Amino acid sequence: LKPLVAPWGPAAAPSIRDEKHPMEASIEEPLDLIRLSIDERIFVKCRGDRELRGRLHAYDQHLNMVLGEVEEIAKVKEEVAGKEPTVKEVRRGIEMLFVRGDSVILVSPPMRST
């Protein structure tokens, strides 16, 4: 993958650097945050009330991703005649998953301990 250059240019946004490892964790563009999360567990919120937690194996500039060891949580509305609809969480484990980038709403990198 070649680096994505933001249309506003790298000089427009300040560089964020990890204080403990200043040369390792340089974030100058939005996808740098994803790049630093390769082989880490991430959280992905998707359209259709779906949430994914898994290990990031690969991604591209469209946010297409390959995740491993995935836990999917889907919120499903159950409607029963004569009763108010209820929302139920359905969980499942998936060994390997391709996520299409246009379904992604949010990507959260792993929590970094200080």
Could you name the key traits of this structure?
mainly beta, 1 helix, 5% helix, elongated
- Morphology call: elongated
Instruction: Note the beta-strand portion.
Output: over 45%
List the total number of helices: 1
Unreliable stretches (pLDDT < 50, length at least 5) are: 1-19
Number of E strands: 7
Largest sheet: 5 strands, antiparallel
Plain-language structure description:
This protein is mainly β and 114 residues long. It is built from 1 helix and 7 strands; from the N terminus they run ββαβββββ. The chain has a 5-stranded antiparallel beta sheet with strand order 6-5-4-3-7, with no helix packed on it. The protein has a two-stranded antiparallel sheet with strand order 1-2. Strand 1 and strand 2 form a beta hairpin. The longest helix has 6 residues. The N terminus is likely disordered.
